[in-house]
Amino acid sequence: MFCDYTEEQLMIAQMAKDFAEREIVPLDDLYDFNHPLSNSDFKAIWARLQPAVMGVIQGMDFSNLDLISIGIFIEELFKANPSLACTIGMAVGPAGMVYMYGDGEQKMRFIPPIIAGQKIGCTAITEPDVGSNPAGVKTTAVEDEDSYVINGTKTWISNGSISDIVALVCRFKRGDDYDIGTIIVDREMSPYESNELPHLGLKAFPTSELFFTDCRVPKENRLGKKGSVEKSQAGLSMVFEGFEYARTGMALGAIAMAQAAFEHAVSYSKERKQWGKYIGEHQMIQEMIADMATSIDAARFLAYRVLSMLQQRKRCDREAAMAKFYATEMALEVTSKAIQILGANGLSEEFPVERLFRDARMFTIPDGTTQIQKLIVARSILGLSAFC
Ligand SMILES: Cc1cc2nc3c(=O)[nH]c(=O)nc-3n(C[C@H](O)[C@H](O)[C@H](O)COP(=O)(O)OP(=O)(O)OC[C@H]3O[C@@H](n4cnc5c(N)ncnc54)[C@H](O)[C@@H]3O)c2cc1C
Q1: What is the pLDDT confidence band of residue 175, given thresholds at 50, 70 and 90?
Q2: 92, 112, 209, 310 from 98: Cα distances, Å
Q3: Ligand 1, pocket-test mutation among 126, 139, 257, most atoms within 8 A of CB
Q4: pLDDT confidence band for 133 (50 / 70 / 90)
């Protein structure tokens, strides 16, 4: 438990747990989560889950669900199925971007089909030569009458191969000048190619290259607050502000995976006997259990502090960076200790902790590596930047 939850938040926690057990865990028998989900499988899963998610929200009259409650809900989703939780989070991501930065017409056009699960979303920043420094993106959008013509390659894009919609970060060219911004690309109207990239963990979570070749996208699909902030200024700050939410989500996911591995380790410690007693009675196992519990709690405090700041619409890049790097590194350590506690069984595919370890390993890199998060934290403390 993070701190004193309200009664409503405690009810959400219970409902989220019930929901995950009733709706998500049984999906393991229906779908193959050892390979990337297909567009049709994900849509079928979302069609099952979406009414139940809406039921949870409407049943509690949580039309204004607070971010702490949403955090609790995200933890349960990740505990039940980390790959699916990632796929859902990335699928609806562009709706969040349009909600925050789109105009009325864009909100009407893009948000409903994403939320209804008719269109699967993804967000594309990373390129083959551009990872930790998003300001270097090379994909170009060149004005041509009522369209932008887009050329470039994106890589490591979550949901890329199954996406119907991309929130695409690119360089908008104006003669010799350019600015960085985001445009919504609808695959049906503006086709692009993709290629799946196999990886270590989160096996069902698609991760892909995207190829844009003379891809024509209507000009009105570009995001940016008209009036208050010039589009040219909004482009990168939109990306960085989006990172505060994304990094908090990753911290919560990491906490959930660590929690799941921890619970398996605790149960095992009370079942397995060596030297005539439960392994949980050996002091060195107790030390690992204490370390694991303490670091999970510490990560949770950091993550929920960010949720509370986001709820108040405060900028929190330092706090989000702290939560992201601490929680994702912690999850690696905790899942590794869980393997240690299970002994050889911890390495077996028959037990869930080896998968949790591989899944957790995927989290220290996206949305800014651990090193980049530390540079953000130190920059905000020192007032000196290591990025220049
Ligand atoms: C599972 C997964 C999902 C992803 N999903 C998406 C997605 O949906 N959309 C998207 O756009 N991208 C996505 N990415 C890409 C991800 O954001 C990048 O991998 C990440 O930003 C790091 O970039 P890179 O891999 O190119 O590493 P690089 O930037 O090449 O870094 C390599 C190493 O150098 C270090 N390094 C780099 N710069 C510095 C510095 N200034 N100081 C110190 N050390 C430094 C890094 O910490 C790292 O250890 C995803 C990646 C993964 C693994």
Answers
A1: confident
A2: 10, 11, 23, 18
A3: 126
A4: very high
| CA-based R_g, the chain, Å | 22
Residue 62: pLDDT above 50? no
Query: Containing H/E element for 321?
Result: helix 317-342
Element at 51 (helix H, strand E): helix 39-59
Determine the pLDDT at residue 1. Answer: 46
Q: Taking Cα atoms as reference points, which of 177, 162, 171, 331 lies closest to residue 261? A: 331
pLDDT tens string 266-297: 999 999 999 999 999 999 999 999 999 999 99
Q: How many angstroms separate the first and last alpha carbons of the chain? A: 40
Q: How many CA atoms lie within 13 A of 342 on its CB side?
A: 25
pLDDT digits (tens, 9 = 90+) for 111-131: 999 988 999 999 999 999 999
Of residues 363, 255, 368, the one with CA closest to residue 321: 368
Cα distance between residue 56 and residue 116, in whole Å: 16
Instruction: Identify the H or E element spanning 380.
Output: helix 370-382
Which atom of ligand 1 is closest in space to residue 207's alpha carbon? 3
Alpha carbon nearest to ligand 1 atom 44, residue: 371
User: Is beta strand 121-124 parallel, antiparallel or unpaired with respect to 165-174?
Assistant: parallel
Model pTM score = 0.94
In the DSSP assignment, the letter for residue 188 is T
Which of 120, 156, 245 gets mutated to test ligand 1 (max ligand atoms within 8 A of its CB)?
156
User: Residues near ligand 1 with C-beta < 6 Å?
Assistant: 90, 122-126, 131-132, 156-158, 207, 362, 365-369, 371-372, 375
Q: Is 274 exposed, middle or buried (0-12, 13-18, 19+ CB in 10 A)?
A: exposed
Ligand 1 closest atom vs CA 375: 42
